[in-house]
Write a structure and sequence with these properties.
Elements: H1 5-18, H2 24-33, E1 38-41, H3 49-54, E2 59-63, H4 66-75, E3 84-86, E4 98-103, H5 114-126, E5 128-139, H6 143-148, E6 150-161, E7 164-175, E8 180-191, E9 194-205, H7 209-218, E10 222-227, E11 241-247
Parallel strand pairs: 1-2, 1-4, 2-3, 4-5
Antiparallel strand pairs: 5-11, 6-7, 7-8, 8-9, 10-11
Length: 248
């Protein structure tokens, strides 16, 4: 999914608070433990990627969104920018194989159609070394939110620069038949003394446990396990995340 420039611009400010501390340690530990090349799919602006690179991990990253890669390249030294580039994971064709492939932060939720989900899994399998692992996460659907939706919920307020405020409002409504949620994100910020706002609309796919297992069984991947959180606990009624580990 391609991100608008205004979303890419403020992505780090918002997700430093919204996401950091949730999955960082888990994915960074997995990347650091890898003995070979690592690929992050949906690398974005480098929230995980840059930390792994700074730890000496032999990591590469792809993202379908040029605006996100542009922001990421702005944080990287020129001699390392070859490690991150624009590519569609559903059709990726990289002249490398990896010991570990990661797709953090619900990347698969942006792949809406079953045919493309299977293509994606098979492209991942083609890029894994023997005994390599593929780890991705998805959120466990909250049935009350699916039924009731979210209306203009302010989930972030802060500063993107000294004295310059920014707010984000989220609206979400589910289509239970298509298993998609239509999301509207509205950002409001101060710029040059004026109040500016812009809106982005997109769909996200939600998944259930056995659907994930059946998709993997239909692909060239083999399921190892599904954890219920980033501490590798078993799935339970209280789980909010699917953390899925696969191999070839």
């Amino acid at each position: 999914m391609e991100y608008p420039e205004f979303i890419a611009r403020f992505y780090d400010v918002i997700y430093k608070r919204v996401r950091n501390g949730t999955d960082n340690d888990f994915f960074l530990t997995k990347a650091s433990q890898s003995r070979g090349k690592v690929l992050e799919i949906g690398v974005g602006t480098g929230r995980l990627f840059l930390n792994a690179l700074n730890r000496g991990v032999d990591i590469y990253g792809i993202d379908i969104s040029p605006s996100m890669i542009h922001v990421l390249h702005g944080k990287m030294k020129p001699q390392t920018r070859h490690r991150a580039w624009v590519e569609d994971a559903v059709a990726m064709n990289i002249d490398m194989k990896f010991d570990l492939i990661l797709a953090p932060f619900r990347m698969l939720s942006h792949v809406l159609e079953v045919e493309d989900q299977l293509k994606f899994f098979n492209r991942v399998a083609d890029h894994l070394m023997p005994d390599g692992q593929f780890i991705f996460d998805l959120y466990v659907p909250d049935l009350s939110i699916l039924l009731e939706g979210i209306e203009q919920y302010k989930d972030f307020e802060g500063e993107y620069d000294k004295g310059k405020r920014i707010q984000r409002y989220v609206t979400a409504h589910a289509d239970l038949i298509r298993q998609t949620t239509h999301v509207t994100m509205k950002l409001c910020w101060e710029e040059n003394g004026n109040e500016v706002s812009d809106t982005w609309e997109f769909d996200m796919r939600f998944f259930f446990r056995y659907e994930i297992e059946h998709l993997i069984a239909r692909s060239n991947l083999e399921l190892i396990t599904i954890y219920g959180d980033y501490r590798e606990n078993e799935l339970s009624k209280d789980s909010r995340d699917f953390v899925v580990v696969c191999t070839q």
